[in-house]
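ugh ok fine here u go
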Amino acid sequence: MTTTGVGNYLPHYKLGYLMERLDEFEESAYHYLQTYLANPDYPEVMENLGRVLLKVLSTPLDLREYLLDNIINPNPSHSLKLAKILYSAGDYPGCLLYLEQCNMSIVEVRELRLKSYLAMGRLDQLEIELENQYGDSPGESSFQLGKFLFDNNYILEAADHLLKAMTAGIETGELYYMLSCICCQRNVLWEAEQLIQRAINTEPERQEYHEKMIDILLQQTIETLIAAIDIFPTNNSFKALLSSLRDMNLQGSND
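structure:
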């Protein structure tokens, strides 16, 4: 099969696809690269190239070096795709390098920057980034940082910034909901109940807040029953109710 000719990128793409299916990843990478060089905007070629390169190259730094050597002066859209490839490979500094060439007004670009700093443990840089975005509202920057950390399962770190936001005057249902979830994880159920009630009072139309309240009340009742059974170990009514509530709790967690 010949691939000679202006604009004749499709045979390269098909060969890249075929070689990938045959686990000939080096050959596949070559043909995907040729496709990109002939038609950089061909759909999914950048993603396909990144996928096979992850199977060919041994380290994230090797991958970054390959991209720098072979894809010269990418436009902002392509730079974002390259940043995603390096992020998936665990090369967060490389990801940030390509993001510098992107349009910072794009939400996806800003979020990927934040995720890269988080993966590097650079919480200080995260704070700076959000302060730059919400400089006129310290409470809002604390809230956004807390929310980002919460969404990425950095629960204890999230709590500090969410409490700062509340102290600064931020009062939203989402803020109270997140703090309630954190209290639940730390088994501080009374405080969790108070916070989720504030969330419900602020935004009563949010179904997930009511579901959280039910979950908290169920957990409190289970703990109360356990304590009661310790005092009255022969009380079969307590035991039957506890068993029933645990079944309800298990069913709810599986839904």
